[in-house]
Design brief:
144 residues, alpha/beta, 4-stranded mixed β-sheet, 8 strands, 19% helix
């Protein structure tokens, strides 16, 4: 295994949203993502979007009944249970928590300092997807 730091994501979460345009704006405001690319579809939705946060990326698009979309359901169809949860490393976790909370994120695990180092919290976005944010950076451990 290489110990050199990766400069970009090699694992990129992908999510679908019923109102992808609103989700993009909210994710940028609440979680600090920035738009890298947004490609609209011909039905007023989003065919594909890429949002970045540091060296990480999230891909998303509108919910649709295509081959891939038929394999994904939304959190409100599973009583909020998830089979995945993106973890995003943030420098100032407390400030990030306050920003997300102010934007209406539903906090499911309150901000806390962790025994293993750093701090973290978990929340749901405007369509119920589960997210985890923390200051623990496993990549920093590589260089130590």
């Amino acid at each position: 295994m290489s110990t050199s730091r990766i400069t970009g994501s090699t694992v990129i979460p992908g999510l679908r949203y019923r109102d992808a345009h609103a989700a993009i704006e909210w994710l940028c405001k609440a979680f600090g993502f920035t738009k890298h690319a947004v490609y609209d579809d011909d039905q007023g939705g989003v065919a594909h979007a890429q949002l970045i946060h540091g060296t990480g990326m999230l891909m998303l698009g509108s919910v649709r009944d295509d081959e891939f979309g038929l394999r994904i359901i939304q959190p409100d169809q599973t009583d909020g249970r998830e089979t995945q949860c993106p973890y995003v490393v943030v420098k100032d976790c407390k400030a990030h928590y306050e920003q997300a909370k102010a934007a209406g994120a539903v906090i499911v695990n309150d901000y806390a300092e962790k025994d293993y180092g750093g701090a973290g919290y978990s929340c749901r976005d405007l369509e119920g997807h589960l997210w985890s944010f923390g200051s623990y950076d496993p990549w920093a451990e590589q260089g130590a």
